[in-house]
Amino acid sequence: MIRAYKFLLRPTTRQQVALAAMLADHCSLYNGALQERRDAYRHTSKTSVRYGQQSAQLKDIRGFDPERQGRWSFSSQQATLRHLDKAFAAFFRRIKTGDKPGYPRFRGINWFDTVDFPKDGDGCRWDSTPHDPVTRVRFQGVGHVKVHQHRPVADRVKTVSVKREGRRWYVVLTAEQEQPQPLPPTGSVVGIDLGIANFLADSSGGFVAHPRHGRKAAAKLEAAQQAVARFPRVRRDQRTAHHRRAVEKVADLHRKVRRQRLDHAHKTALDLVRAHDVIAHEDLKIRNMVKAPVPRPDPDQPGGFLPNGAAAKAGLNRSISDAGWGVFLTILHVKAESAGREVIAVDPRNTSRTCPACGHVAAENRPTQEKFHCLSCGHHAHADTVGALNVLRAGLARRDAQPA
C-alpha cells in the first residue's frame, strides 16, 4: 500500500533562493522540451519527439549549461520530461475520446511549483542525518533543509517531491507500507445523502452541517480581487511590489479555503469510517452537475436568447463546488480502504423521490427541499434522511447481489 506524507519545510534564506532557482531551471527545461516537440511537428513533416529522445539529450544539455542545468539531479530532470510526455499522452487520449483536447502549454515560473525525485537517495535523501534530533531532507544543489515532521513516516520512503505553495515550501513523500490492521467491527451500516442545505444526512437521522467555507470567505476574496483590479495590466516582470502583494493575498485566501475544505472532509470521513462497517453513497457525476445550462435562442429575435435559468444555475454550481463532494468521496474511499471498511456507490436516480415505507416513486413526494410527504401512504420525514435510507437499501442490495 502506498501512502503519501506532506511536511512543511523550514529553509534558510539561502536555501529558499536555491529552491526557487531549482524550480526555475526545471521550468526552463520543461518549456524547452515542449518547444522542441512543437518545432519538430510543425517544421519536420509532423515528426513526433518522444521522451527517450529528449532524455538522451540531457547529458549534452547539462554539459552545455552547467551553471543552470548541470547542478541539479539528473533523475529529477528526467521526471520533468516524463511530466511533459504524460501531458502529450493525455492530449492524444482526449482527442481519441472526443473530449476537449487541451494542448500542453508553456509554464510560467509561477505555474511550475513541483520538482519530483523518483527515488529516495538519487538526488535527494530523506532524514540523511538520523543522529540529529531535527528531521532534515537533503536536495542536490540545495543542502540539508529542516522539516517540520508532525507525524512519523511508516516504512521505506520511495519518492520525494518538493513543492512551493505561495511563500511556503513543502516536501511530499510516498512510502510503501504493509496493509494496516483493520478497525474492529462495529456491526453498523449507514447510507449518506450529500446535499447543499446540509453537507450530508445519514440514514439514522443525523446531519453534518455545511461549513460553506467559500461563501464565508467571499467578502474578503472580493475585496482582494478588487485591489488587484485597480492596478494597470502589465507583464509579470513589470509588476510593482504592491501589485505582487495584492496578487499573493488573493492566492493565500484561495489556499486557506482549500485547506479548510480538506480539513472538514478528513474529519467527516474519519468519523464515518470509525463508526460504521459499511457506508453507501450516491455515485454522483459532479462534472455533469455543475455544467452551465444550454443557451436558448429566441426564434422571434435573431441573435437574441430566451431566459434559461443561467443565473440560478450559477449559484447552485457555486454551492456544489463549495461543498467539495468529490474531494470528500475520494478521502472517504481511501480511509475506508485503510480501515478495512466497505464503501458502496449506488445509482442516485429517484433516491429522494421513493417512499421508504411503501416504495411509491413520484416527484410530488418531495414538495419542498426539506420535506418528504408520500402521496400514497402519507409517510412524513426529512427529504435528505429519506434519500439516505434509500441509498443504504440500494447499497445493501448491491452488496448481497455480488458473487462471493
Automatic annotation (TrEMBL):
Recorded superkingdom: Bacteria
InterPro entries documented for this protein: Cas12f1-like_TNB (IPR010095), RNA-guided_DNA_endo/Transpos (IPR051399), Transposase (IPR001959), Transposase_put_HTH (IPR021027)
Coiled-coil portions: none
BP term (GO), one: DNA recombination
Domain Cas12f1-like TNB intervals: 325-391
Any one GO molecular function term: DNA binding
Alphabetically ordered keywords of this record: DNA recombination, DNA-binding, Endonuclease, Hydrolase, Metal-binding, Nuclease, Transposition, Zinc
Boundaries of every Transposase putative helix-turn-helix domain copy: 1-44
Domain called Probable transposase IS891/IS1136/IS1341: residue spans: 176-291
Assigned protein family: In the N-terminal section; belongs to the transposase 2 family. In the C-terminal section; belongs to the transposase 35 family.
Name under which the protein is recorded: RNA-guided endonuclease InsQ/TnpB family protein
Organism: Streptomyces sp. R21
